[in-house]
Amino acid sequence: MTRHFDITIMKQMLTNQQIVDEILACNEYTQKNGLSLSPQQALALANTRVNSLKETKRLEWKSGIIEQLIDAFYDSPYISLDNYEDLLHDFITIFYDLKNNTWDTISDEDLIAFMKHTFHQYHGTIEFLIDETYRLSEHIHAGGTLQTFPKS
What global pTM score does this model have? Predict the structure, then answer.
């Protein structure tokens, strides 16, 4: 049993290292907006991903959601070096919660576009983004779609 556990831990560490490397590669283009992440920050984001996946009881066969979130939000006028990492942690958690709560009926790209639009609509207020994700989830549960979701 210990041997299997050790192999699982090693696989997770390798996966986390790959994710950290992918996150750090984003610094190449985010730096033009004054944003970059340290290796420690990238590892913390990778850990947030793992924790969010555990909390939502999701499996993910590919990485890349963090990079997609970075790509979507790095040029936001509401993000600065001071809040960049914290917002990314929030976006990761919100993304997986929303993915779960909309029953996987919306593509990753459409969910991220929804999050970005809503974040900008509410001038970078994370609380309003969270409120809108709950509204979207309720709309989906009532039989609606992203396309029929009433915008506030």
Answer: 0.90
